[in-house]
Amino acid sequence: MVKVLLIDDDVELVGMLGEYLEQEGFEVKAVYDGESGLSEALTGNFSIAVLDVMMPRLNGIETLRRIRTKSRMPIIMLTAKGDDTDRIVGLELGADDYVPKPCTPRELTARIRAILRRMQTLSNDENGTQDVDAGHLKMWPSQRRAEWDGKTIDLTSTEFNLLEVLVRQAGQPVSKNKLSELGLGRPLARFERSIDVHMSSIRHKLGTLPDGRSCIQTVYRQGYQFIKE
Q: What is the full DSSP assignment across 158-207?
């Protein structure tokens, strides 16, 4: 049974979300402040965490930052509706996705399933789990591991998914819509910047090509493209 950690000080909302998730077959544990959430997240007992931004004792952004220093577990942030700053900061710090509050249990459950599904496989075709050798970059999907010039790259689950999508279509532009569908497991919302923020983070973590360029290039009006050399 998949274990979900809910970290939010809204007791009523957590109760509603937890009840729905349990009905959908998940095992749920709820904590109501950032320090408790951090402690539970680092036990390694959970498949995914849902983390609210606004909390007492330790806010969600700081909780996320501390989790990411020791764990790559998938994390969905709950953010105030219309607050782009918290969403962007959360994604930059390694959140896998975000859901604006107020959210419905059904929407959150769909996001959780999408992320967990993307962790299991990139695609349904027979090549979906084959290792990737793209010059300086090597990826082992079955191990969720990647290296650049022999050095391990610390990618979140969503960053790994997005990079793998690009690498498997190296030399071809991949649209943001397609990246969202294949990497995040959901359609890209209008005006959403999550793909751009994830790509910026991936570029920062990867090395550069011999000529100093990033191996991930922006293609005007077409999306992103991985350059294999």
A: HHHHHHHHHHHTTTS-B-HHHHIIIIISSPPPTT--HHHHHHHHHHHHS-
Q: Domains of the chain (ranges plus CATH)?
A: 3-120 (3.40.50.2300), 132-226 (1.10.10.10)
Edge-to-edge strand list for the sheet holding 145-148 = 132-134, 137-140, 145-148, 151-152
> Taking the model in full, what pTM does it have?
0.84
Average pLDDT, the chain: 90
What does the angle CA 111 – CA 201 – CA 45 come to, to the nearest 5 degrees? 45
pLDDT tens-digit readout, 92-151: 999 999 999 888 999 999 999 999 888 775 544 444 567 888 888 999 887 888 999 999
Q: Are 116 and 73 within 8 A, CB to CB? A: no
Contact 68/24 with Cβ under 8 angstroms? no
